[in-house]
Amino acid sequence: MTKNTPAPGESIHAVDPRDHVATALRDLACGESVSAHGERFIVRADVPKGHKIATRVVRSGDDVLKYGWPIGRATADIAVGDHVHVHNVITRLEGVEGYAFAPLPPAGAPSADTRTFQGFRRKNGRAGTRNEIWVLCTVGCVANTARRIAEKANQRFAGRVDGVYAFPHPFGCSQLGDDLAHTRKLIAALASHPNAGGVLILGLGCENNQLKALLESAPDIDRERLKGFTTQMVEDELEDGLAAVEALVEIAEKDRREPVPVSELVVGLKCGGSDGFSGITANPLVGRIADKVAEAGGTPVLTEIPEIFGAENVLLQRAASREVFDAAVAVIDDFKRYFIEANQPIYENPSPGNIAGGITSLEEKSLGAVQKGGRAPLVEVLRYGETVGRHGLTLLEAPGNDAVSSTALTAAGATVILFTTGRGTPLGFPAPTLKIASNSGLAQRKPGWIDFDAGQVLEGVSMDVAAENLMDLVIETASGKTTKAELNGEREIALWKSGVTL
């Protein structure tokens, strides 16, 4: 996929020379003159900033190209200068498709990136970017108890670790089968996360998600840094919880940051509240970071499987082996069947906010979204709740929902999350989350939410320079620099509820 960036002073921008459309870099008025592909033409209708304008004639029924790939099919004849959006383009997606594997050429040696971040070495060999105490729960019945323990512990043990945080959820009781297994796997994976210098897990006692079974499913947990009890079996759960946290703090406060190579970074890649600029600025910029991390031997992790629909081949053609290709196809097809079996269309996306921002179809959204994965070979595919095991670009099974997928990224081992957005969101997650604006207007309007302005590449800053600056910020964040979400106390988890409730 071509990744050229706009030249200073452009009013529209076509990503690929094969494209039928360009993106308006400002509001365009009917009757004004603009240029693309070396030719000038007249705007035939008002086109809002971030929306598409036709740069070539498209006949009704023909594919409409953006990023060099189809983003849908024209439902009417489209003339040069027309506004191109949901009124004249419809998705091409229908159901499960067929894919063909093609071996990649041999990869070159990893980049000799000698940069380091100041991280925390853990007993299991992983490296954390924070040294916190996490309070988790097996079941929603003790969610508020977990919050109260964390609040009191933060007051009582302030300054001794990077903080005490509760991550409650409403599940764990009336769940069965795979649905229960999902909850158990996610909590167990969070309990072994390297950003947690200690973990307290609260149970109730009568729930389906039994504490003993949860712990048995998590062999990677450092038992010296784990406390847990069922609240039905103690007299005062708050005091017992605070005593457990104090014991964990006494261990974790001895930890010190030390130089850790970039090859040990695990970076989650996420987008939310996307707009027409996300695929031009923020997502390809994050793709540069994914490539830098992968080339250095680190692990970028891409997820949001429904937001790959329509762009599968961009990713599948980079599968490092037949095994990885087959695993990726299985995850994609399983997710499509998940929609179909629920009697839902697989293309029920983009969201109203995406559409208002200029995204017309799921294919367009997906082709912009997969750019967060850069160009590195795809080396591993994880199912929901699994953790990274290889170095290099990884695909993780999870839905597009911001909180669910970001929680899954954290559970998979992400120690920093890069979250691109064109509309903005205050949400934060257990791993430090950098919010990257696709446009400068958002960055200026929401400075309390946004950590990095990718809109600068629309205003003359080269993508290479922006990528170096963002990589510096990633390393600073991994070394302890506080994100805006952390400053705002925005830390949430959300679990994927996919089954029946008793």
Automatic annotation (TrEMBL):
CDD domains: SAF_AH_GD
Lineage: Bacteria, Pseudomonadati, Pseudomonadota, Alphaproteobacteria, Caulobacterales
Domain of life where this protein originates: Bacteria
Pfam families in the cross-refs: GD_AH_C, GD_AH_second
Protein name, UniProt field: Altronate dehydratase
Enzyme Commission no: 4.2.1.7
Any GO molecular function: altronate dehydratase activity
Keyword annotations: Lyase
